Amino acid sequence: TFHFMALEIKALLKGICYLAEEIFHLQSRYHGSFWRALSACFSLHWHGPMLLVCGSAYVALRNGDGQLLGLHLGLASFCELLILALGL
């Protein structure tokens, strides 16, 4: 479940990077519609529920090793951003 959640975090971070680029093209590409740009950058009908399911499954199946969920998510986000930045 952690692997799937890391993949969903990657898709979310990639969408945020795409949205940061597409903000400058709102008028020319999307006729001023922020929602059209948002839907072009994120596939919310698939990644939103998948992120919710993976996150809740990870919380439910997490063992009592004492490490915080925020630390796991932070490290996964950092690793996925590094992979995205290096083009791996």
Automatic annotation (TrEMBL):
Gene Ontology cellular component list: autophagosome; endoplasmic reticulum membrane
Gene: Tmem173_1
PANTHER family found in the cross-reference section: STIMULATOR OF INTERFERON GENES PROTEIN
Alphabetized InterPro entries for the sequence: STING, STING_TM
Coiled-coil regions listed in the entry: none
Designated name of the protein: STING protein
Domain STING transmembrane: 2-88
One BP annotation, GO: activation of innate immune response
Domain of life where this protein originates: Eukaryota
